[in-house]
Amino acid sequence: MNIEELARENVRRLTPYQSARRLGGKGDVWLNANEFPTAVQFELSQQTLNRYPECQPKAVIENYAQYAGVKPEQVLVSRGADEGIELLIRAFCEPGKDAVMYCQPTYGMYSVSAETFGVACRNVQALENWQLDLQGIADNLDGVKVVFVCSPNNPTGQIINQQDIRTLLEMTNGKALVVADEAYIEFCPQATLAGWLEEYPHLVVLRTLSKAFALAGLRCGFTLANKEVIDLLLKVIAPYPLSTPVADIAAQALTPQGINAMRERVAQILEERQYLVTALKDIPCVEQVFDSETNYILVRFTASSAVFKSLWDQGIILRDQNKQPSLSGCLRITVGTRAESQRVIDALKAEKV
After folding, report:
1. In this structure, which of 4, 71, 239, 272 has its CB flanked by the most CB atoms within 10 Å?
2. Facing residues of 332 across strands?
3. Using CA of residue 189, residue 190, residue 193, residue 197, what is the dihedral sign?
4. What pLDDT score does 324 carry?
5. Which residues in the chain show pLDDT less than 70?
6. For residue 293, what is the DSSP state?
7. Contact 254, 67 (CB under 8 A)
8. How far is CA 18 from the centre of its chain?
């Protein structure tokens, strides 16, 4: 028996998540991973690297709870929100028996994480306006333990209708968790569901420091949920999920000064987003610019594959969304600096339609 044959069958068949870094490229304008475009400076204050860190660093938990408006016992910190996705599947889904549900087009890690653990996936495709197909969800809920809803949705950029999420929470009560992935919520804070936790014991909210906090390289995310859920996740999380330097920087980023700096960055990105949207609408190869509540814009192009390759060859790396359901002809563009936006605009204006 060779090494391949020793592996679990579902892992042999698995296609890994194609992250921006995994896809590569040799550009100098990176607009494919929804990162903040410039680095934020921090000084390490914790030097006790000879000791293991706390499993759940107190300063990080308390600072995030204060920021999110929840209790510390409702917060779990992990290696990015991606680890939160995995913990939820591991804690609540029986491999070969239970399923997770999501509504494409949406974030690809829900399916990859489920498949890794041998948990079935149910995709109820979103409606034409990319809102939830509530009837389709209701018809396919049998055996589903976790329903993932990304709001604002990646890659489409829109907020999911809150009344629809309430309806979803009512129909899943006692049957499944509803996980609201709020990775981009800082760009539309009025849309958060964190305040609903007391009302819905089966609601879970995922958050991250990777986007508006400009700390994608830190790999630090949060799961907000009621204590019963958090206690179960603590049973399956790694003993030391955050290194001491990560916890140190995260705690600093979540001080009042750090949060104010984050809000200034959000204001900057929203201004740059408007500049880019306005310019894109006047470019001949652009068919449609979709509304966005995030730090990226979904755009439908004429001959999108040729446009993608042309910009790639010029060192401008975008994210191709053509393989996602209902996103034929679409590319996703992260909002970068003004200079990066101008590079995109100039390159697109030069395209021959």
Report:
1. 272
2. 298, 319
3. positive
4. 94
5. 17-25, 353
6. S
7. yes
8. 14
Nearest to 39 by CA among 253, 188, 184, 241: 253
Reading the block at residue 267, the tokens are: 């204001």
Q: How far apart are CA 67 and CA 204, in angstroms?
A: 17
Pair 269, 296: CB distance under 8 Å: no
| CA 224 to chain centroid | 15
Continuous H helices in 39-104: 58-68, 80-92
Q: In degrees, to the nearest 5, what angle opens at C-alpha 233 toward C-alphas 132 and 175?
A: 40
Backbone angles phi, psi at 47, to 5 degrees: -115, 10
Q: ∠ CA 168-172-175 to the nearest 5 degrees?
A: 165
Rounded Cα distance between 173 and 321, Å, is: 33
Say how far apart CA 30 and CA 28 lie, in whole Å.
6
Kindly state the tokens that stand for 90. Answer: 């591991």
0.90 surpassed by pTM? yes
Whole-angstrom distance, CA of residue 189 vs CA of residue 63: 17
Tell me the residue ranges of DSSP E strands in the chain.
29-30, 75-78, 99-102, 120-123, 144-150, 177-181, 203-208, 221-225, 286-289, 296-301, 316-317, 319-320, 330-334
What is the sign, positive or negative, of the torsion defined by CA atoms of 13, 18, 19, 21? Answer: positive
